[in-house]
Amino acid sequence: MKFAVFGAGGVGGYLGARLADAGHEVHLIARGDHLAALESDGLRLESVRGDTAVDLPATDDPVEIGPCDCVLFCVKAHDTRDAAPDLEPLLGEDTAVVSFQNGVDNEGWLAEEIGAEHVVGGVAYIFSTIGEPGVVEHTGGPARFVYGELDGERTDRIEALDAALSESEGVEAVLAADIRVELWRKFAFICAQAGMTATTRLPVGELRETDASWAMYRRLIEEVCTVGRAEGVDLPEDTVDEWLEFARDLDPEMYSSLHYDLTHDKRLELEALHGSVVRHADEVGVDAPMNEAVHAILRPWADRAER
């Protein structure tokens, strides 16, 4: 298959390297110092599931790549609307654009720009980032990638993607029966983990040891599940307990990408996370006070980063 990785950072770079090792044609789209390093030295992946190095074509201009079988769309959620128009040169008649991003709104934003027929939902469970230009560091997490057509259909293209990812070493590939459920399941966890580590500036271990903070962590998950169910998403009844058990087993020093961005003066995905919960909650007429609190606390920091 011919792949374009739009946003070759922690998630996109990891998948690009693994797919290239499996024999697929992979093109990387990046920018700045990272792009310069990819062009001169290739992509190096340092992973707990095995290191690799690949020399792949890299560019900041999708026109140089042309139509692909599949585009892995891995930019930060706050860049989705700006980046979506640049997808056009990569689209053939049946190209799948798979959003491996945080939040539950990206697929809709993409559909508005390129048409819903091109959009595939995706969820990434992996702790990885750009360690330095040209280097992606995968430090933990299952490297589990879940994906599916938005209507649940088993199309030829989604089965081809499933085969490509399933055959790639270091990738746990899951073709979902209902990708909306999977998007909201992860959304529930990430709003708790990101929200609590960012607002307290503390790792999950200290949150677990503080009764009031751990109770808020739980309530953040509960609120997202309530909002999702009010929108008709069939979330499993054990979602809250499942995520709390998962969080109890996390490395006590674990933070979140939102915390990293906050403490490194980078733009925040706040509106794609807690801001999104607040908007969806308002639309379906339910309360989400814990998510409102996180949003209110972090909004000035997000504004500062935007400036």
From TrEMBL:
Residue ranges of domain Ketopantoate reductase N-terminal in the record: 4-151
InterPro entries documented for this protein: 6-PGluconate_DH-like_C_sf, 6PGD_dom2, ApbA, KPA_reductase, KPR-Related, KPR_N, NAD(P)-bd_dom_sf
Biological process terms in GO annotation: coenzyme A biosynthetic process; pantothenate biosynthetic process
UniProt keyword list: Coenzyme A biosynthesis, NADP, Oxidoreductase
EC numbers: 1.1.1.169
Catalysed reaction, written as an equation: (R)-pantoate + NADP(+) = 2-dehydropantoate + NADPH + H(+); (R)-pantoate + NAD(+) = 2-dehydropantoate + NADH + H(+)
Gene Ontology terms, MF aspect: 2-dehydropantoate 2-reductase activity
GO cellular component entries: cytoplasm
Keyword Disulfide bond: no
Residue ranges of domain Ketopantoate reductase C-terminal in the record: 178-299
Pathway: Cofactor biosynthesis; coenzyme A biosynthesis
Family, per entry: Belongs to the ketopantoate reductase family.
Main function: Catalyzes the NAD(P)H-dependent reduction of ketopantoate into pantoic acid.
Name of the protein in question: 2-dehydropantoate 2-reductase
Organism for this UniProt entry: Natrinema versiforme JCM 10478
